[in-house]
Amino acid sequence: MKAIACLRRAFGTLLLFLAVFVLIFVLRHMDILELLPKVKSTFIMPRVSTHTNMNRSFCTFQSLSPEDALEESLILESTAWPETPLLPAPISLEQTSHPAHSNFTILPGRKGGQWHVGDQLEVMVQTSDFQGRPKKHGGDFLLARLHNRKLEAGVAGQVVDHLNGSYSAVFSLLWGDAQVEVTLVHPGEAISVLNRLNGEQPDRIYFKSLFRSGSLSETTLCDVCLRPTKQPLCNYTDLRTGEPWFCYKPKKLSCDARINHYMGGSKTKILNANEEKLFRSGVNLKVSIKASGPASVTVLPQQEGQLKVKSSIVTSGPSGYYYQGVWRALGGTTVREFSTSAISQCLKGKVVHMYGDSTVRQWFDFLNAALPGLKKFDLHSPKKAGPYMSLDYANNVLLTYRFHGPPIRIVVVSTSELRYIANELDGLIGGPNTVVVFGIWAHFGSFPIEIYIRRLQSIRRAVVRLLDRAPGTLVVIRTGNPKDLNPFVSLTNSDWSSLQCNKVLRAIFKGLNVHLIDAWEMTLAHHLPHNLHPPPPIIKNMVNNLLSYMCPQKGS
Questions:
Q1: In terms of Cα–Cα distance, which of 130, 107, 137, 102 is closest to 119?
Q2: In this structure, are 47 and 163 located in the same domain?
Q3: What are residue 240's phi and psi, to 5 degrees?
Q4: pLDDT tens-digit profile of 493-514?
Q5: How many domains does the chain fold into?
């Protein structure tokens, strides 16, 4: 009996120890737990766990620190897309959402259908399949916009998935009369296919490198994720950031003989005949949904003493809106328009470093075109890839641009120019006259989201180090934006992938002293067609946003 009593006491002590350990762990990681309770997005969904099945992917993921592993798990949970019930195999197109048979209805406003500036407008969307039968589950990807073409006004709506085939779109009424626009980007079944492809076929866009020594040269496949074969690998994992990259080893040359990186091409026939039907332009791929009644509303002026009407189904409003073609931010710094002379004055004495993909390069090109005093040095860099550098000696301005590290889907890039953003940031002194701008999203659409999470975790650590040693440094981050979609782009760089990347970006940099430029809403709210590279009017507004952070209006 004494032995049993001793065992019970020992067991009780062990349980107490475990309880205390768990409590300490949770308390120590409350900052991470608070990192992403709500992720700002124009698409809001109840949490439905759809973790990427890591076992089905041949990508190898290095172990993370306990903090990063916990954060990754929380991000995966918070960004999980609603599951679509499995349809009979093969997939029946007839049971998927069809925009021609779906519709939206503007819900009555307060006081018998009247709306005033400052109110919230709610729209109910009911999706139906190709037979006209109402859908019973959620998971579709919808976009919503409220606009007035004459006023050049527009604002993005927030979409809420009710998981029963119906959706709500909620808009802030910020000007007078407006028209509602709802678009089906993908049915939920297409999202399931995209999610599966990112796990099973992350190499549907593939990369290559040339190896050369003397007169001997060989080319092999390279990627973050390489299919296991008997062929040995060259491991180019970055020693400082831990960013993985591999190439199949050449048969006759060493791994040190690698001289460049480029996109090799894309795989075809990655879908079966039934899956291909889920990505049909003009049918179910970024197609407008019509209204069952009026698609526009008359908005009366704001009343004196009027209380702002808030929707009960959304937690945050839009980041801004267009009026007379000018972007007006809601919250944060006041965005103002900059003339050529104002741009020159704002940049005077500043060093601006830009990193990322070609959507960031658009800002570099815009500033170079806007300022005659900026002279672009010929560094003999490959077109589109960079690096680029411009100087204005008279005003002591330095402007640089460099592409982010692989994966890179552009022209051939020398291995000596493959630089990760985190490493570049670690090489900066920083300070009150230093501005860092980066955006990284467009080249990650074919990979498991874990790869993007880990890239941003690496960049965040470098941002924290930069701000610790030089608190006055201004850091501005560009989000991804919606684009023109066709079947090929949908399978390799869909708007859905961009939206997921944006959610991750917001979660990882939440709470840091950085500024985000919401390229997603700035593109969605504008009347011009979506494009991977937004047209000049949108870029001008984005650069005005950037400059407003660099040179804020007094009192803002």
A1: 107
A2: yes
A3: -85, -45
A4: 999 999 999 999 999 999 999 9
A5: 3
Question: Is 555 inside any structural domain?
Answer: no
What does the buried/exposed string (b/e) look like for 430-440 if buried means 16 or more CB atoms within 10 Å of the residue's CB?
beeebbbbbbb
Element (H, E) at 143: strand 141-148
Q: Which amino acid is at 422?
A: A
The answer to whether position 254 is within a domain reads yes
Looking at 201-296, list the stretches that DSSP marks H as alpha helix, in order from N- to C-terminal side: 273-276
Is 225 found in the same domain as 174?
A: no
> What does DSSP assign to residue 108?
P
Contacts of 123 (CB under 8 A, 6+ apart): 104, 105, 106, 107, 144, 157, 168, 169, 170, 171, 180, 182
CATH of the domain at 301: 2.60.40.10
* Rounded distance between C-alpha atoms, residue 90 and residue 83, angstroms: 18
φ, ψ for residue 306, nearest 5 deg: -70, 135
Q: Residue 19: what pLDDT?
A: 44
Of 238, 118, 137, 188, give the one whose Cα is nearest residue 246: 238
Q: Report phi then psi at 417, rounded to 5.
A: -105, 5
Distance of alpha carbon 186 from alpha carbon 97, whole angstroms: 9
Residue 140 CA to residue 127 CA, distance in Å, equals: 9
Of 89-98, 237-246, 303-312, 441-450, which gets the smallest average pLDDT? 303-312
Nearest Cα neighbor of 285 from 530, 53, 546 is 530
Q: Are residues 247 and 355 in the same domain?
A: no
Question: Does residue 60 sit within a domain?
Answer: no
| d(C-alpha 322, C-alpha 79), whole Å | 28
Q: 346 and 547 in contact (C-beta within 8 Å)? A: yes
pLDDT tens digits, one per residue of 7-35: 455 445 444 444 434 343 433 344 433 43
Q: Which domain holds residue 337?
A: 320-550
Supply 301's token pair: 């002026």
pLDDT over 60 (residue 465): yes
CB 104 within 8 A of CB 112: no
3 state DSSP class of 482: coil
Identify the H or E element spanning 341.
helix 340-347
**According to the model, what pLDDT value does residue 83 have?**
86
Please state the φ and ψ torsions of residue 96, each to the nearest 5 degrees.
Answer: -95, 165
Residue 12 domain-assigned? no
Both tokens of residue 230? 């008997």
Domain boundary pick from 318, 351, 384: 318
Give the bridge partners for 401, in sequence order.
354, 388
Digit-coded pLDDT (tens) for 192-247: 999 999 999 999 999 999 999 999 999 999 999 999 999 999 999 999 999 999 99
**Structure tokens belonging to residue 477:** 């981050």
